[in-house]
Specification:
Helix content: 25-40%
Number of strands: 10
Order of helices and strands: EEEHEEHEHHHHHEHEHEEHH
Strand order of the largest sheet: 6-7-8-3-9-10
CATH superfamily of one domain: P-loop containing nucleotide triphosphate hydrolases
CATH architecture of one domain: 3-Layer(aba) Sandwich
Radius of gyration: 17 Å
Distance between the termini: 39 Å
Largest sheet: 6 strands, mixed
Structural class: alpha/beta
Strand content: 25-35%
CATH topology of one domain: Rossmann fold
Bound molecules: adenosine-5'-triphosphate, magnesium ion
Number of helices: 11
């Protein structure tokens, strides 16, 4: 459903992505892993339309998404959970969720969606009137995902969900993402610095190094590969 072909992205004189190509099939959960500064967030920002590629093409279910505005990309069914969550801290959970559902195709089904995200993340329902800025880190991450789901995405992009969270909380959120992936057939692309975790949860993964895709394979296959073990899974 997602085809990325030969994408270059530059920030001024600095080239961040070099000929990036990869694809995600409908219903898959795919991980993009790599170390600091490899270009992971740049890939997600480009997929969500906030960053425009200098070269290459991106198609979502056969429709070009790289040539349209970011809000049109949301209408195509692509929703980003950004790095650092970017919640409206002085607004309540409900207000954050309502803003997430404020687009054309999602608006009609807002009530149903609200029920669904509360079912996925019951703690958000219990705290519906609490200000986002006063939630714990894990709750904020759940709210960021829930807000993205309110736009009724076909493709959910999640940037570094594990950042700053305890392993047990991260595990639970990934479990919920899997459920969202399976039960509602939402295709998911996650970006992770925590390579082991990402390879354990994803169907397939791509490795990005210095702005280039260098490896791809099934999560379990990559976990067992020597190149991955020595570069990313070294046990110190
Ligand atoms: N707005 C920007 N202006 C200039 N350079 C940028 C900008 N954003 C990112 N870069 C550069 O592009 C490269 C890729 O950055 P990016 O944020 O995509 O990496 P990342 O893999 O997400 O890293 P991290 O794991 O630290 O989040 C880095 O060299 C970074 O310094
Ligand atoms: Mg990043």
């Amino acid at each position: 459903m997602l085809e990325v072909r030969d994408v270059d992205v530059t920030y001024g004189d600095i080239q961040a992505l070099w000929g990036v190509s990869f694809s995600v099939r409908k219903g898959e959960m795919v991980a993009l892993v790599g170390s600091n500064g490899a270009g992971k967030s740049t890939v997600l920002r480009t997929l969500s339309g906030v960053q425009k590629p200098r070269k290459g093409t991106i198609t979502v279910e056969g429709t070009r998404s790289d040539t349209v505005d970011a809000h049109k990309v949301v209408e195509l069914g692509v929703s980003l959970v950004p790095e650092g969550r970017r919640l409206f801290r002085d607004m309540t959970i409900l207000e954050n969720l309502e803003l997430g559902g404020y687009i054309g195709r999602a608006r009609k089904v807002k009530e149903e969606h609200l029920e669904w995200v509360f079912q996925m993340f019951p703690v958000l329902k219990q705290r519906i009137s609490q200000l986002a800025g006063t939630l714990s880190g894990g709750e904020q991450q759940m709210l960021a995902i829930a807000r993205a789901l309110m736009s009724d995405p076909k493709l959910l992009l999640v940037d570094e969900l594990s950042l700053g969270l305890a392993p047990i909380i991260v595990k639970n959120i990934y479990k919920t993402l899997r459920e969202i992936n399976k039960s509602r057939n939402v295709t998911i692309l996650v970006v992770e610095q925590n390579v082991r975790l990402a390879l354990e949860v994803a169907d397939r993964a791509y490795v990005i190094e210095n702005g280039r895709i260098t490896m791809e394979g099934a999560g379990k296959e990559l976990l067992a590969s020597e190149a991955i073990k020595s570069a990313y899974l070294a046990i110190g």
